[in-house]
Amino acid sequence: MESDALTERHRFADAERAALYKTVFNRRDVRGQFTSTPVADEVLARVLYAAHHAPSVGFMQPWNFLVIRSQEKKQQVHQLFSKANREAAEMFEGEKQTAYKSLKLEGILESPINLCITCDRTRTGKPVLGRTHMKTMDLYSSVCAVQNLWLAARAEGLGVGWVSIMHEQELKDTLNIPEHVVPIAYLCIGYVEHFKDKPELETKGWLPRMNLSELVNFEQWQGEASTSEQEQLLETLQALESFPTNF
Ligand SMILES: Cc1cc2nc3c(=O)[nH]c(=O)nc-3n(C[C@H](O)[C@H](O)[C@H](O)COP(=O)(O)O)c2cc1C
């Protein structure tokens, strides 16, 4: 087959690809704009299916999805956050601490659904194909489920916020999660007033988005471009700098 035909053959139609990139570049971590509008089970089911179809090492599917709607449970988790957030603020100094304290870093009580995505480290027994040497691969698999859900939710018009500022064991105790299971992500999910164009940590001056071409190395860690082929990729990255803003 002609190589041109091969590059086209499995590619999605232009509008479909645009929809994918639109989802990727417009996904945001949402903390402050949640509304109480209920999320229909059908919508929640679709995003859970998206999560469940994430890649996983050895097809281990180590995740569970703990759907939390009761105000009582949310209050308990919010207390864990509040305590940890006070501790976290103390870890920064001066202006950084002032900036930290001004940030809203969760939407636990305002979002209609909280969802804890976990990783069962014993699922499918031992050994697990692909996890024979790098034992953390099960954790990364559950993270893939988080990202799938996050993107699907954005396409559905749902905001998602990841809350990680709490003690892991306290969260486990609160949600009755057994020893061999790790809480990977505690997510706040709901419809939102608006989605921000950029990460809040960027617009509020916490950190800037890094330059992608400075993060691409060749052949080894920190390997710099030394061939025309390598330099061409860097030039292409720079030329496409505005690509994410096109969607
Ligand atoms: C593993 C992980 C943990 C995070 N934990 C928190 C958190 O505890 N509180 C918070 O406000 N945002 C949290 N975030 C969201 C990031 O701050 C956010 O993704 C980043 O600033 C980029 O913004 P964006 O997601 O809107 O593009 C977390 C994100 C990830 C991937």
Automatic annotation (TrEMBL):
Molecular functions (GO terms): 5,6-dimethylbenzimidazole synthase activity
CDD domains attached to this UniProt entry: BluB
Cited Pfam families: Nitroreductase
Enzyme kind, highest EC tier: oxidoreductase
Membrane-traversing stretches: none
UniProt EC number: 1.13.11.79
Domain Nitroreductase: 26-191
Keywords: Flavoprotein, FMN, Oxidoreductase
Annotated InterPro entries: BluB, Nitroreductase, Nitroreductase-like, Nitroreductase/BluB
UniProt name for this protein: 5,6-dimethylbenzimidazole synthase
Annotated source species: Litoribrevibacter euphylliae
